[in-house]
Amino acid sequence: MKETINVNIAQQAFTMDMDAYTALTNYLNDIGRRLSPTDTETLSDIEARIAEIFRERVPSPMMVITYAVVYATMKQLGDAETFGDANRPMSDNQRGGYGRSRKFYRSRKEKTIAGVCGGIAEYFDIDPTLVRIIFVVGVIAGFSTGLLYLILWLVSKQEPETV
């Protein structure tokens, strides 16, 4: 079960899942940092285009905009870097990339057993091999890192799928 949120994009109402909302917010914030602070028209035009694309891809207003739809829309519009160099630094609540919020997920890419070590590495932006070594040394040394691994495996969600 996923949490959803109602949003207005270019005066059009959409229901989005939280992963999609986070990705789109980060994408628009990144574009906004690259535009002049006084250039609100360009960002409004981009939002209007996003709303058009969402209406094309999701036929019914009752359907939820998923991360896959947002990801495909971002790919269609292009990376934020195409709008120029960043003029302003990213604030703390804007960090985390397009597809990721600052939330712990089990990794899909860096996965040996369940993706827990890979997820920790992605969260802290460190090498997954280092995290794996720490877990193995902890198990050998008699710490409860094995139990911690199992708990994280059971309670954490897997990273959202990218298309």
Can you describe this structure?
- By secondary structure, the chain is mainly alpha-helical.
- The protein contains 6 helices and 3 strands.
- The protein has a 3-stranded mixed beta sheet.
- Helix 4 crosses helix 5 (128-140).
- The longest helix is centred in the N-terminal third of the chain and has 18 residues, at 40-57.
- It is elongated and about 60 Å long.
Element layout with pairings:
Elements: E1 4-9, E2 12-17, H1 18-34, H2 40-57, E3 64-65, H3 67-77, H4 116-124, H5 128-140, H6 145-155
Parallel strand pairs: 2-3
Antiparallel strand pairs: 1-2
Order of helices and strands: EEHHEHHHH
- Roughly how much helix do the residues carry, as a percent range? 40-55%
Number of helices: 6
Give the strand order of the largest sheet, numbering strands 1, 2, ... along the chain: 1-2-3
Going by helix content, strand content and strand pairing, the class is: mainly alpha
| Molecular shape | elongated
Which value, in Å, is the CA radius of gyration?
19 Å
N-to-C span: 20 Å
Can you tell me the residue ranges where pLDDT is under 50 for at least 5 consecutive residues? 91-101
Quantity of strands, as a count: 3
Major sheet description: 3 strands, mixed
| Mean pLDDT across every amino acid position | 81
Beta content comes to 5-15%
